[in-house]
């Protein structure tokens, strides 16, 4: 019999106030999400979820990608009823082991089968998975054709990878979107958007709230947080960009830091297009750098810089002849 509506009852199979089995994690997301995805592929169009009030928020989050009503009931006939702890009922046997879930231990046992199912579906859609035994993808993630997932790749949550990307090795992307032709190598991207043909990593940490443009370079030991990075901007190494609005084609010299926090409040930096930041530049927010401006290496910038100007914020060098020799002599070393 074909079903178009499913009623999922989460209330049975657990002791009072114990989290329902369907809300326990299986490869980063609740079992309930896996069940809805599998049933949707088999023709179920709408879901009614019944649970105790204290678990309502978690249940709504688990089914947010589907046409679902939480704590709803339907009087309609021809409804598939799925009653925990058997997930789902034997009449809708799945290919990912969910029919075997009769308890918490079985959830752990089903994880390898579920991982293989997700990766098999990706491979059928033109994704290359170099090492399936060392790749983990949340069932709610999407990956475009031509993309290569290298060993150690972990994709979680509301993550969308476009076509012809290279992810990994050893990369974790969570609740983020990655544009076409982009590489994420040995890095983490969290709750952010990365544009097309951009290179991230190795050892880059993208924190939540970032939008990184097209044709950018965010390199090794770079941390970006709550910032907008314009197209063509290069942040090659050893740099922190936090709470900043960065224009296009900006060059960050090694060791640049946006000092956005004074211990009480956070402030933003604004950096225009075609700005060149010399190595070891400190930008004391809030500060604005105009289009085409430069900063001299080693500068600490505390005031706005006009367009096309050079900001040099360092003391003039003074050489004291013989000082080093006298210093060594003072503690008995030639």
Characterization of this structure:
The protein has 334 residues and is an alpha/beta fold. The chain has two domains: 107 residues, Spore Coat Polysaccharide Biosynthesis Protein SpsA, Chain A (Alpha-Beta Complex), CATH 3.90.550.10; 195 residues, Hexapeptide repeat proteins (UDP N-Acetylglucosamine Acyltransferase, domain 1). 14% of the residues lie in helices and 30% in strands. The strands form five sheets. The protein has a 16-stranded parallel beta sheet that branches. Strands 9-12-15-18-21-23-25-28-31 form a nine-stranded parallel beta sheet, with no helix packed on it. The longest helix has 21 residues. It is elongated and about 90 Å long. It starts with a strand and ends with a helix. About 5% of the residues have low confidence.
């Amino acid at each position: 019999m074909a079903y178009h509506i499913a009623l999922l009852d989460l209330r049975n199979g657990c002791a009072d106030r114990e989290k329902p089995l369907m809300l326990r994690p299986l490869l980063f997301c609740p079992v309930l999400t896996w069940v809805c995805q599998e049933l949707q592929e088999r023709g179920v169009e709408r879901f009614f979820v019944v649970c105790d009030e204290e678990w309502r928020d978690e249940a709504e989050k688990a089914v947010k990608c589907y046409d679902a009503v939480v704590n709803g009931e339907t009087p309609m006939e021809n409804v598939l009823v799925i009653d925990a702890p058997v997930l789902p009922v034997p009449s809708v046997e799945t290919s990912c082991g969910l029919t075997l879930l009769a308890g918490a231990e079985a959830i752990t046992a089903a994880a390898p089968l579920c991982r293989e199912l997700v990766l098999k579906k990706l491979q059928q859609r033109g994704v290359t998975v170099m090492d399936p035994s060392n790749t983990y993808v949340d069932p709610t993630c999407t990956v475009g054709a031509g993309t290569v997932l290298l060993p150690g790749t972990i994709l979680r949550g509301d993550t969308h990878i476009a076509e012809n990307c290279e992810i990994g090795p050893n990369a974790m992307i969570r609740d983020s979107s990655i544009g076409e032709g982009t590489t994420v190598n040995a890095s983490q991207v969290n709750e952010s958007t990365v544009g097309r043909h951009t290179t991230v990593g190795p050892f880059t940490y993208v924190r939540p709230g970032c939008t990184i443009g097209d044709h950018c370079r965010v390199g090794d030991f770079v941390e970006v947080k709550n910032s907008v990075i314009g197209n063509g901007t290069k942040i090659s190494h050893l740099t922190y960009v936090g709470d900043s609005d960065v224009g296009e084609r900006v060059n960050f010299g090694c060791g640049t830091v946006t000092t956005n926090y004074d211990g009480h409040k956070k402030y933003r930096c604004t950096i225009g297009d075609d700005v060149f930041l010399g190595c070891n530049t400190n930008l004391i927010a809030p500060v604005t750098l105009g289009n085409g401006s430069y900063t001299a290496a080693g500068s600490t910038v505390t005031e706005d810089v006009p367009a096309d100007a050079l900001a040099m914020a360092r003391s003039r060098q003074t050489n004291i002849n013989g000082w080093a020799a006298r210093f060594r002599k003072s503690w008995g070393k030639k």
